[in-house]
Amino acid sequence: MAYTTDETLTVLVYSDDRNTREQVLTALGRRPAEDLPELSYLECATTPAVLKALEKGGVDLCVLDGEAVPAGGLGLGRQLKDEIYGCPPVLVLIGRPQDSWLAAWSRADAAISRPVEPVALAGAVATLLRDRLAKRTPAVR
């Protein structure tokens, strides 16, 4: 991947539960994989905060809590994919593996079951961010 050493990638983490947001940040750390730039985080507890952050731009990935209330991350993910041109990749945290069909309905790019398993989350996030970087970085020939 081609990126500058001072570049950071911005991950938006949405959940009404501060503990869930903290689990995601702790699981991902500063860098989910050696070949990726460091991460910075935008923590959001409400849907309006998510929409405002995405309106500003600069978000590289959204991690949405499917169990958040009153607006769950599954419905919010579908809304983002429908309404935001060039929506960043969306990863949803689902309550159980059987809810993967809901993740597909939401048009999420990836889904991880809760409780957050750090290796699985870091792997999924790394894959989504690599894809994002590959699409924005022109191929050098």
Automatic annotation (TrEMBL):
Keywords: Phosphoprotein. InterPro entries: CheY-like_superfamily (IPR011006), Sig_transdc_resp-reg_receiver (IPR001789). The modification 4-aspartylphosphate is found at D65. SUPFAM superfamilies: CheY-like (SSF52172). PROSITE patterns: RESPONSE_REGULATORY. Residues 10-129 form the Response regulatory domain. GO terms for biological process: phosphorelay signal transduction system. The keyword Phosphoprotein applies. The keyword Phosphoprotein applies. This is Response regulatory domain-containing protein. It comes from Kitasatospora xanthocidica.
